[in-house]
Request: fold
Amino acid sequence: MVWCLLSQMTEVQLEMGTLHNFISIHDLVRDDIELILEQAAAMESVAIKRSKELSTKIMACLFFEASTRTRLSFESAMLKLGGSVLGFADVVVSSAGGKGETLADTIRTVERYADVIVMRHPLDGSARVAAEFSSVPIINAGSGSEEHPTQGLLDMYSIKKFKGNIDGLSVSLCGDLKYGRTVHSLGMALSHYDVKIKLAAPPTLRMKPAIVNEMKKAGMEVKEVDSVEEAMKDADVVYMTRIQKERFPDISEYDAVRGKFRISLDEVALMPEDGIILHPLPRVGEIDSEVDATPQAKYFDQVYSGVVTRMAILKMILS
Reply:
């Protein structure tokens, strides 16, 4: 069972915990996204003083792939809400990695230990498979090169927080748009808003046609460009991503594109003074460190958006 149809529920019902799984941005409509962003804003003050609201709840983090920000922000979010955390951050130490246990059996075991499962997995569709076998909520923390829905929502929250609004903006998505799951989720979330989109990527790493078509079908103005310079011009928001080396089936393909898309001070100068630069991190050279000191650089502030957004999601699922 995927995330229930939020648009058919009232805000009061949502706050009482009527959400179940959070698998995909595709399961949300604009009202759902707006409600989650409102709840995330409300978590700003809760995060400072902390809460005991989820003191009886346990979150299991199952990370079959490497993670720093996603895993730690989920753990921070749960702890700030008074809950407890267990799990693994390296598949090698689990029975799935060391003994060949199936994903289904891992889920059916862990659901006995926890009230919610947050899972990252290298295979597309893994979160939906996990949800089929779990009696407790599943939150998708990244499934292959497919989606990263909570990242998409924290990115939306960051845009609204730093720009004041989402409608009317010009947003450029840059870098690895083929394998970068963060831009897939963010692009679909933005399709519910009145924004202009530029998609800037090397020819071999362009956004998947299905996602581009879905954006256009939603009424978005979408333009595909071939350079960072074109992406930076007149952009209210530039969302840069790293080249996903681990996703390439052939390392020679990665070598051919690495280092092609980079932001330096020269590129920043092409942006409006009130423009912002976001990045899901980690970066591996696609943003010069000199850019960090510019007022446009918001990617380290963006990290904290992950805590409050994930606090909102956990609260709405477990309250």
User: Anything to note?
Assistant: The chain is about 40% helix and 15% strand.
